Known about the structure:
Elements (H helix, E strand, L loop, with lengths): L1 E7 L1 H5 L3 H10 L3 E8 L3 H7 L9 H8 L4 E8 L2 H9 L12 H5 L8 E3 L3 H12 L8
Antiparallel strand pairs: 1-3, 1-4, 2-3
Amino acid sequence: MDRTFLLIKPSAVSAGNVGGIISCLEDAGFAIAALTMKTMSREEAARFYDVHAGKEFYEPLMDYMTSGPTVGMLLEAEDAIAALRRTVGATDPAQAAEGTIRARYGRTVRQNAVHASDSPERVEHEADIYFGTDGTEAA
């Protein structure tokens, strides 16, 4: 089994979509290895989204990601990273395939319900920030 990381964003948490998103993940064959809810600090959000530092949307992204609770999950499945990215859909909910998490629960490009890691390195980086570990102790 491979691992990946998913973060449910503040707008999806406040809209009451956590249960629906978890159901989508389980229906797609993912096992939850670890799960926690927290409001990210500005420092955590900056480390989490370090790849976007300096871009015009970075500061609004920091404001949004620290605006309320998020839910982070380590997920397990075969070819987990690619499978999760297919399950969540395109970044823009308006362009996401029908039935994907972002098509169902996303509002806008920024408020697109979830973040999904895109590489093994990012899984490790993001899980370390969110859980304080690479996830091996969180499971």
